[in-house]
Design goal:
The chain has 16 helices and five strands. It is of the alpha/beta class and 335 residues long. The protein folds into two domains: 3-169, P-loop containing nucleotide triphosphate hydrolases (Rossmann fold, 3-Layer(aba) Sandwich); 214-334, Zinc Finger, Delta Prime, domain 3. It has a five-stranded parallel beta sheet with strand order 2-3-4-1-5, with helices on both faces.
Length: 335
């Protein structure tokens, strides 16, 4: 993959290509945008471009060849001058020890590349101690060294860190663009591609990840258990592998109730998330009140927020399952 293969980030790519072509590469960049929009791929391809052995010969100075020894090593993450720094440990943070290692390596000359490149994923996970240790190096970066910090927002980082970086914003892509990319890349049917596009909220990388993880199959298992008056829902929700997966499972429930609410209110299929379950959505419109749907949606959102507050996920699942089953049972009795 090279710059030309990255979709939906023309603005960011234009800036970086111009920097490279004019030999005006900044020592520190901050890539800001939601997860799954392509920040990591752009950072990796930037590292490939500034170190590519054939870029000037084949494409000018703004596109990696993606076939030379340098590009191949970066793709495999084994290049001696390109470093990928990621959060680790139970706290999922970038530690001061990691930053000290970055500083030590940055002060060495490139081993075989043109530039040393350090790519820090989720830079906002640095604690204050790590961030402060990094400030001096960001302020006076070693020669032929580039730091690329990636974060969901500038506000999540110390202002002193942000002020030392050239900020490039990344944006979500139009849903139709994501839909078309999924169809072209995987041969996915349009309805399935649209579901992935909707749930990814325009994040191309996230949509691709969802497709590879059989996202729609899991979504439909959750909805099937919900429609069976909540029977089996506890078992499905307890099968999560991490907190993010559980939060997405709860999003399936929120979005399904939201679809019923929306269709009941305006009788329009256009903006529904679960377009593969339209028959069930329509059939339940008469069984729920708007007030009841509104309550259930808000209740699930509140319970989902507890997961980020370190409430035991099992407690959240137990409470949610009982409330959903009572709600669905009341529907069955009243219909």
């Amino acid at each position: 993959m090279s710059f030309r293969d990255i979709k939906g980030q023309d603005w960011a790519l234009g800036i970086l290509r111009e920097n490279i072509s004019k030999n005006c590469v900044f020592p520190s960049y901050l890539f800001v945008g939601p997860d799954g929009v392509g920040k990591s791929e752009v950072a990796k391809n930037f590292a490939k471009t500034v170190n590519c052995l054939d870029a000037a010969k084949d494409f000018g100075q703004f596109e990696p060849c993606d076939r030379c020894a340098s590009c191949n090593k970066i793709n495999l993450r084994i290049h001696p001058d390109v470093f990928f720094v990621e959060p680790k440990g139970l706290s999922l943070s970038i530690t001061i020890d990691q930053i000290r290692a970055v500083i030590a390596k940055a002060n060495l000359k490139p081993y075989e590349g043109k530039k040393k490149v350090f790519i820090l994923d989720k830079a906002h996970s640095m604690n204050n101690e790590a961030s402060n240790a990094f400030l001096k190096t960001l302020e006076e970066p070693p020669k032929d060294t580039v730091f690329i910090l990636m974060s969901r927002s500038k506000e999540a980082l110390l202002s002193t860190v942000v002020s030392r970086c050239y900020v490039i914003r990344f944006f979500t892509a139009p849903l139709e663009t994501v839909e078309n990319i999924i169809m072209e890349k995987f041969g996915t049917e349009r309805d399935q591609a649209r579901i992935l596009s909707n749930f990814s909220c325009g994040r191309i990388g996230e949509a691709i990840k969802m497709n590879e993880e059989k996202f729609i199959e899991r979504k439909n298992r959750i909805i099937d258990s919900l429609l069976n008056t909540g029977k089996g829902l506890l078992k499905e929700l307890e099968a999560y592998s991490d907190k993010e997966e559980l939060k997405m499972d709860l999003e399936f429930l929120v979005s399904f109730f939201r679809d019923i609410f929306l269709y009941k209110a305006i009788k329009n299929e256009k903006n529904l998330f679960h377009i593969d379950r339209i028959a069930e959505i329509k059939s339940r419109c008469g069984r729920f009140t708007l007030e009841g749907l509104d309550y259930m949606i808000k209740r699930i959102i509140v319970l989902r927020s507890y997961i980020d507050r370190n409430v035991n996920p099992k407690i959240v699942v137990d409470v949610l399952t009982n409330e959903v089953r009572r709600f669905m049972l009341a529907e069955a009795l009243s219909s």
